[in-house]
Amino acid sequence: MARHVMALTAEDDIFALLDNCRPFEVVPSEPLISIVIRDKAPLPDVWTEEWRQEEEGDEIACGHVDGYPLFVFRSRGKMAGWLKCDSDYHSATLTLGELPKLAIDNAMMIVYALATAEMNTLLFHASVVCREGKAYMFLGPSGTGKSTHTRLWLRYIEGSRLLNDDNPVVRIENDGRAEVYGSPWSGKTPCYVNEHYPLGSIVRLKQAPYNAIRPMSPVEAYATMASSVSGKRWEKSIADGLHRALNSLTATTRLWQMECLPDEAAAKMTSGTI
User: What tens digit of pLDDT does each residue of 182-205 get?
Assistant: First the structure.
């Protein structure tokens, strides 16, 4: 996963829930991130909530307890689990609830995004296809049609393949190039591809009764990418790391605004333009 290594400590039966991680398994080495998984235990009675995200019945609440970062995962009223991290997010303890798979996936994704935020690494909310040796990312709020548009590419644009359908990783290399990696987190589409490609372009999608595409200004591009990247922007070190990586992307990558229908013509317009 973008050359970073994560270790999990748990009973053997937990690892049956990690099939999405199998393609990314590496020879054991000193891990950057470690998560200890334990069975059910009550959530602390007193903790401070800072932020909450709800999407399609799933909920992540973020806060702190006894000075340590805390994340609580729920889905449709059920407690999936809760995660307590150290201050730099390089180690954490995950307590499982009624939905262990959801808790493990959320925990891994969160600690990965936060621990690598100062390493020129960005976890995007996007769908991405690869074609002719480059990766093309499609951004937009949930329900915009990112997955629909990439499926149109797969159907109508020869040589297209899906790299990730929800959470690709972008890493800024030492020479300034942006490289897009597959990840173990791909939303509702089981696409777990351990491959990476240079970033070709980024397109922000918007539903419309017509097809039209235009380049974004640098300010638009930065704001668009910032709203699609995971991170705790109220923590200075994380915010500074994200800002440096986003600045680099803004300077080196062309971003486009695509207003479109969910049709073949839209896919051919984006592919022909970008």
Answer: 999 999 999 999 999 999 999 999
- For residues 239 and 231, give the distance between their C-alpha atoms in angstroms, rounded to a whole number: 7
Q: Look at residue 9 and tell me whether its pLDDT is greater than 80.
A: no
Q: Which amino acid is at 265?
A: A
Identify each DSSP E strand in 76-150 by its residue range: 78-85, 91-96, 121-123, 127-131, 134-139
> Taking 90 as the threshold, does the pLDDT of residue 247 lie above it?
yes
> What H or E segment, with its residue span, contains residue 34?
strand 33-38
Which residues contact residue 45 at a Cβ distance below 8 angstroms, ignoring those fewer than 6 apart? none
Residues in the chain: 274
Strands 68-75 and 58-65: antiparallel
Q: What is the pTM of this model?
A: 0.93
CA distance 2 to 241: 16
> Residue 58's beta-bridge partner residues?
55, 75
- For residue 229, what are its two tokens? 């990247």
| Paired strand residues for 49 | 63
